[in-house]
Design goal:
Blueprint (H helix, E strand, L loop, with lengths): L1 E3 L3 E2 L2 E10 L2 E10 L5 H18 L7 H7 L4 E4 L2 H16 L9 H6 L14 H8 L8 E2 L4 E4 L11 H15 L5 E5 L2 E5 L8 E6 L10 E5 L2 E6 L5 E4 L2 E4 L2 E2 L4 E2 L6 E6 L2 H14 L1 H11 L2 E5 L6 E2 L1 H4 L5
Antiparallel strand pairs: 1-3, 2-3, 3-4, 4-8, 5-7, 6-7, 8-9, 9-12, 10-11, 12-17, 13-14, 15-16, 17-18, 18-19
């Protein structure tokens, strides 16, 4: 367990807890009494994240999602409530985005050598892409009102573009259930903040450090009961025969996103939606994604491969003043 105490104000302190999950690190800064018992909180946070992994990690052979992906055609599976809620959100974003986000993208991710079942970056043959595309499509998902899920045969769910956001939200809910009225949750760079620090100020987070060469100012957001997530090629890409490929797959074409933004950042009420929309907008690209985000009132910021960053009015309203 990793923890750190901070300077107190009126017997309240900002404590920091650390841990590991989903192949990355988590960090929670929380406001509590200077002598608060932190070990039980650390255990509760880790348990919340472990539950997400046990349900939705394709890296775990015994997870609920892995068992579903291996299941025989015609079988029906009773999903844990959290799993069903995340999948329902994924399907909503898939429909709203016209398939730019798709929770059945798993076989394409593996085909290009990414993810839990990838075996190294490669560029597959066009015919192979077409074959795998025939097994992909969010409309094949039959999630029933009672939370049960049918396996039509060959469907491979991949919730990696939304499950981490859900994990952030799960930790925030866990903290509130333990009486923590103010906290900043960070799981691999995806964030949720609620409440105020002991001095009464809101939580602020750095999205972009800025660039002295171009006089670009740092992008700092104020998060007041809100979440933020990012996607883009800055973190995941590879080169083959002198050409760059993004790790983000366009489920509609079966190939990595062409001309993908370097980064897309989305602010939403919860990290699950921020996570999913950041991926969907990355797939759409800067021009289409920015127009879509403006039309839907999404708080989004795009950093193109060349040129200046652009953002929606609702994102600009979140900038720290």
């Amino acid at each position: 367990m990793h923890l750190q105490h901070a300077t107190t104000i009126d017997d309240r302190a900002v404590h920091t807890l650390y841990g590991e999950t989903m192949g990355t690190r988590w960090r929670v800064r929380l406001v509590a009494g200077a002598r608060a018992a932190l070990a039980p909180l650390h255990e509760a946070i880790q348990s919340s994240l472990d539950a997400v992994v046990a349900q939705m990690s394709t890296w775990q052979a015994d997870s609920d999602i892995s068992r579903y992906n291996r299941a025989a055609a015609g079988s029906t599976h009773a999903l844990p409530r959290a799993f069903a809620d995340v999948l329902r959100c994924a399907l909503d974003v898939a429909e709203a985005s016209g398939g730019a986000f798709d929770p059945t993208v798993g076989p394409l991710v593996a085909l290009w050598g990414f993810g839990a079942h990838g075996d190294g970056h490669r560029v597959p043959a066009t015919g192979k892409i077409a074959d795998v595309l025939s097994r992909v499509g969010w409309r094949r998902i039959d999630l029933r009102a009672d939370g049960s899920l049918a396996q039509p045969g060959g469907v491979q769910l991949d919730l990696s573009a939304i499950a981490k956001g859900h994990g952030v939200d799960a930790v925030a809910a866990c903290l509130r259930a333990h009486g923590i009225a103010a906290a900043l949750v960070d799981v691999g760079g995806e964030l949720h903040a609620h409440g105020r620090k002991p001095d009464g100020s809101a939580w602020q987070v750095l999205v972009e450090a800025g660039d002295e060469a171009t006089d670009e100012a740092p992008c700092v957001l104020t998060l007041d009961d809100a979440a933020v997530a990012s996607s883009g090629t800055r973190w995941h890409r590879f080169e083959h025969d002198g050409r760059g490929y993004a790790h983000t797959i366009d489920p509609r074409s079966g190939a990595p996103v062409a001309h993908a933004p370097v980064a897309v950042t989305v602010v939403a009420d919860d990290a699950m939606h921020a996570d999913a929309w950041a991926t969907a907008l990355t797939v759409m690209g800067v021009e289409q994604g920015l127009a879509f985000a403006r039309a839907r009132g999404l708080a989004a910021r795009f950093v193109p491969a060349a040129g200046e960053a652009c953002m929606t009015p609702t994102f600009a309203a979140r900038l720290a003043r």
